[in-house]
């Protein structure tokens, strides 16, 4: 037990150690040049954590390891639950069936495609394939973090998935404004989209929430309709992580039973933190908590997620990356092409159909 009388002091010291690193990550992420790229404190945190893991990890007392592990596991689940304060069901209803269908189709298709490509085609292990697919299909680093406890994956696999999110999410931030002039400006033709439709496309296909916010902000002449549609569709994808994780837990239980790796009855893996996340979003939809308090909760929650990501980075050694080769890059690249090209086609079809 991490908080037993014997281990309590070391655990607390380890948690405080992670918190100091997370605070540094937050300050770095708030630097204008960094924030302009849509790089969140979570991403900075895992980079700092990995740097520590491969340079200074032998310099701290071993008793602190319990606090680092606690930050990467328990604090993570707590933070995912309170991530629900970023969403209301009213926001999701605002974009209507178009935004919901684009979110549902892109999330499910990207996750299935990425998992299949990584595991079957590029021969990665299943955990890394699913984590990489989760990052691309839902909401970037936060989705990777939320999926990791369900898979019980190793820290370095999480780091691989997050690095792919950073790479292709950053590419998207520069690509989509260029595409805007090709899509919005033509008055007619297949490539034409309205500002609201382009917002749905952005929210349904870009990796990170921060990147979705940054893209309309970087486009001269972008309307409020575009910005609002992009963010709301993105948050619809975010809330879908809960049912996705529940389905994933059921699948893992079924797969374990089918392979015979579980003796006797199948232990159903239900990620309860995902269920609580939906409940928290429902509570937030009632608007019982003042907006300034909600904003404070979200700031604290971002810091807790940064702690969790930093802790996962601290468990990542470069030696564990050997053997992966370019498989994660190939998998993430194909998913990115699907998000950009397939997402455009899906958005056009949904808007025309529903």
Total domains, how many? Answer: 1
Instruction: State the low-pLDDT regions, or none.
Output: none
Number of helices: 16
Please write the string of helix (H) and strand (E) elements: HHHHHHHHHHHHHHHH
Main β-sheet: number of strands, strand sense, barrel status?
none
Radius of gyration: 20 Å
Binned, the helix content reads over 70%
Helices and strands in order, then pairings?
Blueprint: H1 8-29, H2 32-35, H3 41-53, H4 65-82, H5 89-94, H6 96-121, H7 126-137, H8 141-151, H9 155-183, H10 195-205, H11 209-217, H12 224-239, H13 241-259, H14 272-285, H15 291-314, H16 327-353
Helix pairs in contact: 1-3, 1-4, 1-15, 3-15, 4-8, 4-14, 4-15, 6-7, 6-10, 6-12, 6-16, 7-8, 7-9, 7-16, 8-9, 8-13, 9-11, 9-16, 10-12, 10-16, 11-12, 13-14
Model description:
The protein is mostly helical and 354 residues long. It has one domain (8-353). The chain has 16 helices and no strands. Helix 4 packs across helix 14 (272-285) and helix 10 (195-205) runs parallel beside helix 12. The longest helix has 29 residues, at 155-183. The termini are far apart. The model has no long low-confidence stretch (mean pLDDT 87).
């Amino acid at each position: 037990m991490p908080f037993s009388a014997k281990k309590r002091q070391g655990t607390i010291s380890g948690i405080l150690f992670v918190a100091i690193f997370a605070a540094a990550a937050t300050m770095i992420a708030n630097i204008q040049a960094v924030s302009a790229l849509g790089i969140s404190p979570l991403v900075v945190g895992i980079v700092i954590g990995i740097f520590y893991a491969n340079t200074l990890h032998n310099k701290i007392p071993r008793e602190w390891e319990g606090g680092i592990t606690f930050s990467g596991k328990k604090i993570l689940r707590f933070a995912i639950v309170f991530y629900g304060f970023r969403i209301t069901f009213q926001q999701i209803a605002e974009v209507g069936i178009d935004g919901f269908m684009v979110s549902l189709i892109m999330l499910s298709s990207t996750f299935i495609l990425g998992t299949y490509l990584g595991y079957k085609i590029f021969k990665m292990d299943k955990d890394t394939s699913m984590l990489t697919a989760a990052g691309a299909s839902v909401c970037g680093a936060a989705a990777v973090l939320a999926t990791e406890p369900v898979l019980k994956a190793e820290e370095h696999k999480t780091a691989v998935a997050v690095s792919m999110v950073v790479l292709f999410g950053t590419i998207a931030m520069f690509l989509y404004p260029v595409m805007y002039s090709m899509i919005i400006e033509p008055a007619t033709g297949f490539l034409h989209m309205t500002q609201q439709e382009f917002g749905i496309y952005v929210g349904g296909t870009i990796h990170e929430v921060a990147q979705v916010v940054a893209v309309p902000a970087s486009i001269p002449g972008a309307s409020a309709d575009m910005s609002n549609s992009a963010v709301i569709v993105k948050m619809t994808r975010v809330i879908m992580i809960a049912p996705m994780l529940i389905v994933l837990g059921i699948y893992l239980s079924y797969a374990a039973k089918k392979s015979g790796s579980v003796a006797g009855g199948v232990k159903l893996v239900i990620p309860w933190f995902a269920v609580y996340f939906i409940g928290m979003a429902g509570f937030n939809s009632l608007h019982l908590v003042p907006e300034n308090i909600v904003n404070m909760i979200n700031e604290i929650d971002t810091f807790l997620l940064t702690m969790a990501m930093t802790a996962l980075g601290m468990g990542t050694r470069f030696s564990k990356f050997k053997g992966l080769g370019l498989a994660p890059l190939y998998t993430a690249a194909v998913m990115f092409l699907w998000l950009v090209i397939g997402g455009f086609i899906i958005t056009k079809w949904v808007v025309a159909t529903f």
